[in-house]
Amino acid sequence: MALVFRVAMQFVGILLSLLGWVLSIITTFLPHWKNLNLDLNEMENWTVGLWQTCVTQEEVGMQCKDFDSFLALPAELRISRIILILMFLSNGLGFLGLLVSGFGLDCLRIGERQQDVKRQLLILGGILFWTAGVTALVPVSWVAHRTVQEFWDETVPEIVPRWEFGEALFIGWFAGCSLLLGGCLLNWAACGTQVPLASGHYAVAEMQTQCSYLDNGTANPSV
């Protein structure tokens, strides 16, 4: 029963990590980090991301323009873009974590008799997912913090439109939490059970050997 529970935790951890890794990549390129609705023109909606700014109009649709230079970005997005350079690296590490953790799964027959190596692979994969999750949460939380500060800034007149949270921030939070939770499940599965999976195979093989001796009417020579 404990063995089935451990395999289930590994499977759920891999799925959560894969989901978080894909969503973190989507967050990086999605141009909806901040939204701006104009009260004077409700048919026009502005969105800004890390690479471009977009305006959505009812008649024209969405039109986007890339930032001309890195210095043209707002301060909070400029800092987040620097941090997201590490996020690209974490996406690569997340992919590496998927490969490493895959070879460490108990349901994979490769390396059945090297349980210590498979356990270390699971732990390493979990650490890689933790790193990817934290690196995804830092820039998203920073932009959200700056957006809240600007929204409640009393020095800005109330008539001036305020930026609000975009969809990419929520996707980024979900991605980071999925990566963290997936890494936790993998490490829990690797460290929570000390009985190796291979011992079960040895027990089954020994039982089959004993049965063969009984069928032949002979005694086990090792006894």
From TrEMBL:
InterPro entries: Claudin, Claudin_CS, PMP22/EMP/MP20/Claudin. GO terms for cellular component: bicellular tight junction; plasma membrane. It comes from the Eukaryota. It is found in: Cell junction, Tight junction; Cell membrane. The keyword Phosphoprotein does not apply. One of its GO terms (molecular function) is structural molecule activity. Pfam families: PMP22_Claudin (PF00822). Keywords: Cell junction, Cell membrane, Membrane, Tight junction, Transmembrane, Transmembrane helix. Coiled coil: none annotated. The chain crosses the membrane at residues 12-33, 79-100, 121-144, 170-190. It is a multi-pass membrane protein. Belongs to the claudin family. Claudins function as major constituents of the tight junction complexes that regulate the permeability of epithelia. This is Claudin. It comes from Physeter macrocephalus. The gene is LOC102983193.
